[in-house]
Design brief:
There is one protein chain. With about 180 residues, the chain is mainly alpha-helical. The chain has one domain. It contains 6 helices and no strands. The relative contact order is 0.15. It comes from Geotalea uraniireducens (strain Rf4). Keywords: Membrane, Transmembrane, Transmembrane helix. This is Menaquinol oxidoreductase.
Length: about 180
């Protein structure tokens, strides 16, 4: 009889291993989603750091020599850069909104920081950074704010799903108290 008790408890232990593994996987997924949700803040902080450099006219970077400026050629006009900024801003906003509507979890905030830094650089080389700083800054905060909101809401929904899944798994092996919740 003692041998039967030992034998009958073994399948319970084996049955609980997949549930424990599933719980660990869910907890790990929740941790990754929380980390992913904070990426928007990091991208925004990086953009603000680049913007601070732009306000100071990139004084911390070395200036180009006249030979390098001659190799680069004439910078584009401020109107051309502004048109490209407007096109980029609307395109980025439309892409972010389409990802939000499709429920996609993709995130491109750091690439946006790179593009916006390039606009600061183009305005700097054309000599029109002072007049156009706020246009790039407003476009950047709009794009990165929307991107951050998108990834934050996506991750919050996925975390909620994982927590519900955990509650279901927890309720199925318990005494039935959480089955009605």
């Amino acid at each position: 009889m003692k041998n039967q008790t030992t034998h009958s408890s073994q399948p319970e232990d084996e049955a609980s291993l997949p549930v424990q593994k599933g719980t660990q996987e869910s907890m790990e997924k929740i941790r990754r989603l929380k980390t992913k949700a904070s990426r928007g803040l990091f991208a925004m902080a990086l953009f603000i750091a680049v913007s601070i450099g732009a306000v100071q006219n990139f004084a911390f970077l070395p200036t180009f020599t006249p030979q390098i400026r001659a190799i680069l050629g004439t910078p584009p006009s401020a109107n051309m850069i502004s048109a490209a900024l407007m096109l980029y801003s609307f395109s980025a906003i439309i892409l972010i909104l389409s990802r939000m509507m499709s429920g996609s979890g993709s995130y491109s905030g750091f690439s946006h920081v790179g593009y916006l830094a390039a606009f600061f650089a183009f305005y700097h080389f054309s000599g029109a950074l002072y007049e156009n700083f706020w246009a790039v800054f407003a476009a950047g905060t709009t794009i990165l704010g929307l991107e951050s909101y998108h990834i934050w809401t996506f991750c919050a929904e996925e975390i909620k799903k994982e927590q519900e899944s955990l509650a279901e798994h927890g309720g199925s092996k318990g005494s039935g108290e959480s089955a009605g919740e």
